[in-house]
Each structure stands twice: as C-alpha cells, then as structure tokens.
C-alpha cells in the first residue's frame, strides 16, 4: 500500500441516514421517539422506490414509498410507525427500485459494499433496531476503565480462615507446579490466599492505571476458588474476608472515585449449597434432600434425586429455574439478594451466562437494581452480537430497553487478535462496523472492551503464535514463551491495547495483563499476580496509555468512523463536537508518514506537528480539528510482516 488520504479513502455510500439533520449513516439502532431520514442514490432510470421493513418477531412487512429529490430518493420515518405500540423491536429492510425494465433490490453485502442487484431474500439486508432509552444513563462509566479482579489470585492482606480440604499456596513461584496436577484443578480447591483486604490494599496501584470501576469475580460463599458454584448468596466468603472486608473495600474505593460491580451467577448454584445441599454440609433441608424443601421448586429433577438439570451437564452446578416465582422473590424482592448488595453500595452487576436467563428475568433484575440505584449498570456475559443473539431458539432482546446496559465485547477481542496475528483486516472491519452500527450508542459507550478474562487465554499468550493443542496438560501450567516469541507478542500487545483504549466502550484490564502474565485457558489464565516481578516495560506502557485515554473526552462518547484497513495498516477516527482523534495502527514492517493540513497533537507522546512518523509495528493517536484532511504514505518499505 503506497498510501491513502482521509477523504480519498472514503467509500461512497448508496444509502445515507440523517437524524435531526446530522448524518448517522453508520448507525442501525434508533430510539423509538426518533424520526430518521433514509436517503438513497439511485440509477438514472429509476421511476419509483419503496422501503420494505420486515419485523423479525412477526414477519409483518411494512412499506414506505420514497420521494424523488433530484438524483436521490428519500423518506422520513418515525420509528413509532415501524414498531407501532411495542416501542421496540428488531427489523430488517431493503429498498425496491422500480425502472422501465422492472425492479431491483438494494443490497448490503457482508463486505460492507453496497450495490444494486436482484435479490432472492424474503427479508431485507439492512438491520434496524428500535429501542427504548433508560431515563438515567450510566454516564459515569463512559470514558472510564474496568479492572477485573479474580480475588483469590490478586493479593493477600488479611488473616482469614482456610476452608477444610483447601490446598493453600501463597508462593507464586510454586503455584504452577501445583496446577500441573489435574485433580487439583478439577476440584477447584487450589487457593493462593488472595482476599478483599488485598484488593483494598492495592487500590492506589489501580488508581495509577486510571481504573474507574472494579469488576470482582464471584465473592459469595463457595467451596471453590472461582466461586461460580455459589453456596450462599447472602454471605461473602470468609476466606475472602467476609462482609466487613467487603464493606471496607467499598468505602475505600469510593474515596478514590472507583465504582465496584459484582459478578451475579444466577443461572445455577453449587450442588454443595444451602439450596441444593447434595453433600449434606448445611443444616437446612436442600432440594436434593427432600422434595418438600423450600428450594425444591428451584431445580428440575428428571428422576429424583439422582438425575437433575445442570449447567452444561456439570453435576456440581445444578441449574436454577429462573422462571420460578419464589426464586425471583429471593433475588428481586424487597429483601432480595440483588437489592441487598445494591443497597450496600455496589454500582452494578456483571451477569454470568446472560444468554441462559430469560428476557423477563433480565427485565425484573434490571428494574430491581435501578430502583435501588438509578445510576447503576447491568452488564451481560454475551459472546456474540447482542442485537441478533439467539439462545435456545429465542431471539434475545438485551438492547430493546429495560434489560442490559452493555455486554462483554468478545467480538472485538476476537477481531483484534485475528487482525494482529493474521492481518485479517476484512474480518476486523466487518466485525467492528457491525457492532458499533448495530448497537445503540448508549450501549456501545458502555461496552466492556476486554482483551482477556478468566475464561480465555491470557492476551499475551494469544498473541504469541504458540499452538496450545500440541502441549500436554501438565506442561501448560508452567509454559512460558521463548524470548523471541514473547518479544513479538509484546509488540502486538501494545497495538492491541492501543485499539482497546481508543475504540468506543470501556476498556477492561484483566488483572496481571498489565504486568505481562502469560497463561493458557482456565485454569492457567488464573495465575497469581506477580507482585515485585512485573514486566515494568509493559506496566509503564499501560500507565502512559491509560493516562492519555482518560485525559481525552472524545474517547468517552465520540462517534467512530473507519477510514482505511489493509493487512498492515488500520485507520479510524473518533469525533466529538468539532474535534477528532485519528487512530493509526501499523502491524507491518513498513514505515509511514502522517501529514495533516494543520498542526495536530500526539496524545501519547504530547508532541505537536503537522507531520508524524508511524514506525513499524507501532501506533499513533493524533488529535485534530474535525474536517481537516490528512494523508498517510510509505516512506521506507521493508519486507511484509509474517
């Protein structure tokens, strides 16, 4: 690629959309009170045009004639005319163009080119989401930074009781050796001793990273280290410090302006719990001990008591019937669990396996949370596009209004990894344009933009080109990349973080990623934080880039437009109130020069100039007035990256 210019790179759109006079062509989601103007550029022979809108729910088709305005046809449609009394819904549409020779359909292909042609599709190729905006948006989250803490593996500062049958290891150097024994991991009873007191003790460290919101993996009573098998929702696990330690953490976080959200695991409980009590460890009568138990209606037994429904067939995780009235009262009632912790001072919930919870359940949960804290946030674990997600044969309505405020942005993570490791720019552009077009802007600004979590390989490992399938289980725990592979992974990590920190949403740092931790998928991605042995170069980079992000308001709620992408270079813009930030990512070996019509500022280095060098495997964030033209061209061409 010799180069490109801002306006020269723009692809002509055959369809445009306008909201209150502002061009919003990239958007496909509108509030039900909006009136949107749809404009199309048509062939000269066009004598008429109709927009056909199909309801995803009912299949009902509505037709809206377009009027001619010179070379273009347009129509202004109130969203209420599309969704009628529902106030929300998912729709698909297309344009039917009539000429003297017949009719043609306006197509929107997967590669985002737009064209005319015949179509056999019964529904439209363009997506349209009509949603209801919540009264008070969680704007405190916009522009912030999440930090995900797996409590047992972060830092130990308390003197807490140790559970019976727990294997305790406080030596991080020996920890991988214990993880080599598969039975230890199968039982999930291998503990490092991290606790809530330890999280509180490291809040100033988190503040140095610009963290604005802590996301804690489960902290309720449980016999496991991960605590996704809840034993008692009403109690904070004593091994983590109990309720007093949690209240102290909340208070200390508030002093530093940090919010705290909890992991809500409401689709299943633990078999070793007061609710199921399979092991008989609790004095109450659990569902497995008697069909007359107060909890028996919560679970589905195929053949009592031996056969029951569980999450993904794991018998230690009996699945709860989320439609059971007594269970919902337990969670959402006046004295319910969700209200209890929201009243205690948390700022929201991350919902585990949200796709297995019904729309009605999510609506009731969200209502309970917002009644207690109108500014709280509810985030769902969803791995796909949340606007089109189908679970158990049902299209989910996460973003229609009243359910979720955001989801975990796994599609973004996958797109970044595919681009940086394979140069797959088409997948990157297709994925991100789809996400940020399909999602309501309020939800897009609150997305949990992650590079790794407790459920994935460490981001550094994923960027290192190591084939995990070739390593036997016992070697994965202690495996570390050779120096050359790690050096390549670190360069890619810098680019991944540059994208993560500049794309719409709230970047989420998984504990230890900023310190250079490696690790394969669960449980090897859950090694203890390496206090005193951090990769200081990576840590310094994180501090510099998070500082640049939090000082620039464009990253909080600015729009995004993709300008150019190929296998080596990526360019997109964030715009807000007459200003823009140009993000340039160079994953290749060539060296480029950026030239603008006026002086700009590199937000990371602070340098100001009309010209900037974009080195091999590097990035720049340049702030400029909106409307300014710029161009990017190769100055030194080297071998392509492999």
* Helical coverage, percent range: 10-25%
CATH topology type of the largest domain: TIM Barrel
Query: What is the CATH architecture assignment of the largest domain?
Result: Alpha-Beta Barrel
What structural class results from the helix and strand content? alpha+beta
Characterize the largest beta sheet: strand count, sense, and whether it forms a barrel. Answer: 11 strands, mixed
Compute the number of structural domains: 4
Tally of separate helices: 18
Terminus-to-terminus distance: 16 Å
Regions with little confidence, pLDDT below 50 for 5+ residues: none
Q: What is the molecular shape? A: globular
Q: Give the full name of the CATH homologous superfamily of the largest domain.
A: Glycosidases
β-strand number: 35
CATH class of the largest domain: Alpha Beta
Mean pLDDT across residues: 93
Name the beta content range.
Answer: 25-35%
**Spatial extent as radius of gyration:** 26 Å
Describe the 3D structure:
This protein is an alpha+beta fold. It has four domains: 9-131, Immunoglobulins (Immunoglobulin-like, Sandwich); 146-266 and 323-550, TIM Barrel; 268-321, Oligo-1,6-glucosidase, domain 2; 558-636, Sandwich (Immunoglobulin-like). The protein has 18 helices and 35 strands. Helix 11 crosses helix 16. The mean pLDDT is 93.
What labels would you give this structure?
642 residues; alpha+beta; Immunoglobulin-like; 18 helices; Oligo-1,6-glucosidase, domain 2; 11-stranded mixed sheet; 4 domains; TIM Barrel
Helices and strands, with pairings:
Layout: E1 3-5, H1 6-9, E2 15-19, E3 22-23, E4 29-31, E5 35-41, E6 46-55, E7 61-69, E8 72-78, H2 79-83, E9 89-99, E10 102-108, E11 114-117, E12 126-131, E13 146-149, E14 167-168, H3 175-179, H4 182-187, E15 190-191, H5 196-201, H6 203-208, E16 213-216, E17 220-221, E18 232-236, H7 242-255, E19 259-264, E20 301-303, E21 307-308, H8 325-332, H9 337-344, E22 348-351, H10 359-372, E23 377-380, E24 390-391, E25 394-395, E26 406-407, H11 410-422, H12 425-438, H13 441-444, E27 448-450, H14 459-462, H15 473-476, H16 483-500, E28 506-510, H17 536-550, H18 554-557, E29 559-565, E30 569-576, E31 579-586, E32 591-602, E33 608-614, E34 618-625, E35 630-636
Parallel strand pairs: 4-12, 13-16, 13-28, 14-15, 16-19, 19-22, 22-23, 23-26, 27-28
Antiparallel strand pairs: 1-35, 2-3, 2-5, 5-8, 6-7, 6-9, 7-8, 9-10, 9-12, 10-11, 17-18, 20-21, 24-25, 29-30, 30-31, 31-34, 32-33, 32-34, 32-35
């Amino acid at each position: 690629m010799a180069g490109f210019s801002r306006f020269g790179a723009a692809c002509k759109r055959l369809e445009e959309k306008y909201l209150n006079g502002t061009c919003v062509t990239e958007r496909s989601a509108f509030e039900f009170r909006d009136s949107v103007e749809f404009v199309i550029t048509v062939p000269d022979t066009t004598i008429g045009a109709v927009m056909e809108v199909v309801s995803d729910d009912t299949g009902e088709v509505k037709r809206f004639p377009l009027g001619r305005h010179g070379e273009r046809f347009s129509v202004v449609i109130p969203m209420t005319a599309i969704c009628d009394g529902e106030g929300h819904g998912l729709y698909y549409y297309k344009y039917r163009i009539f000429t003297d020779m017949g009719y043609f359909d306006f197509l929107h292909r997967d590669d985002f080119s737009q064209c005319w042609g015949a179509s056999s599709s019964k529904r439209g190729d363009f997506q349209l989401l009509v949603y209801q905006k919540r009264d008070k948006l969680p704007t405190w989250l916009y522009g912030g930074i999440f930090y995900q803490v797996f409590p047992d593996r972060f830092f130990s500062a308390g003197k807490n009781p140790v559970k019976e049958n727990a294997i305790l290891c406080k030596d991080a150097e020996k920890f991988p050796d214990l993880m080599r024994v598969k039975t230890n991991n199968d039982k999930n009873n291998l503990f490092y001793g991290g606790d809530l007191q330890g999280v509180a003790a490291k809040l100033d460290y988190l503040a140095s990273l610009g963290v604005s919101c802590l996301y804690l993996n489960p902290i309720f009573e449980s016999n496991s280290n991960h605590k996704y098998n809840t034993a008692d929702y009403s109690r904070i696990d004593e091994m983590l410090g109990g309720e007093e330690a949690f209240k102290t953490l909340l208070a200390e976080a508030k002093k530093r302006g940090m919010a705290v959200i909890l992991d809500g695991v409401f689709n299943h409980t633990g078999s070793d719990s007061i609710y199921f009590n399979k092991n008989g460890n609790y004095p109450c009568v659990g569902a497995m001990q008697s069909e007359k138990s107060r909890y028996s209606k919560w679970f589905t037994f195929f053949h009592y008591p031996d056969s029951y429904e569980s999450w993904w067939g794991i018998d230690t995780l009996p699945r709860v019937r989320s439609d059971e009235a007594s269970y919902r009262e337990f969670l959402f009632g006046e004295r319910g669990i969700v209200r209890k912790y929201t009243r205690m001072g948390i700022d929201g919930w991350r919902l585990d396996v949200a796709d297995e919870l019904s729309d009605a359940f999510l609506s009731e949960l969200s209502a309970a949370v917002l009644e207690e804290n109108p500014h709280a946030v509810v985030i769902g674990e969803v791995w796909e596009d949340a606007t089109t997600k189908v679970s158990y044969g049902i299209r989910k309505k996460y973003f229609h209004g009243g359910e979720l405020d955001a989801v975990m942005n796994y599609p973004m993570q996958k797109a970044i990894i595919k681009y940086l490791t394979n140069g797959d720019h088409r997948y990157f552009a297709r994925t991100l344009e789809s996400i940020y077009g399909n999602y309501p802007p309020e939800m897009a600004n609150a997305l949990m933009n992650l590079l790794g979590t407790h459920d994935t390989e460490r981001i550094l490992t994923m960027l290192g080109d190591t084939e995990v399938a070739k390593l036997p289980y016992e070697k994965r725990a202690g495996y570390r990349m050779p120096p050359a592979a790690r050096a390549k992974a670190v360069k890619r990590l810098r680019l991944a973080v540059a994208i993560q920190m500049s794309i719409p949403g709230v970047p989420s740092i998984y504990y230890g990623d900023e310190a250079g931790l490696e690790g394969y998928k669960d449980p090897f991605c859950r090694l203890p934080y390496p206090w005193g042995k951090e990769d200081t170069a990576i840590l310094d980079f994180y501090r510099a880039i998070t500082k640049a992000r939090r000082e620039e308001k464009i990253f909080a709620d600015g729009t995004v437009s993709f300008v150019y992408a190929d296998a080596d270079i990526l360019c997109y813009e964030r715009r807000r109130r007459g200003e823009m930030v140009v993000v340039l990512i160079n994953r290749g070996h060539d060296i480029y020069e950026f030239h603008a019509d006026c002086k700009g500022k590199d937000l990371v280095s602070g340098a100001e100039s009309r010209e900037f060098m974009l080195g091999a495997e590097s990035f720049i964030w340049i702030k400029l007035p909106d409307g300014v033209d710029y161009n990017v061209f190769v100055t030194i061409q080297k071998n392509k990256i492999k």
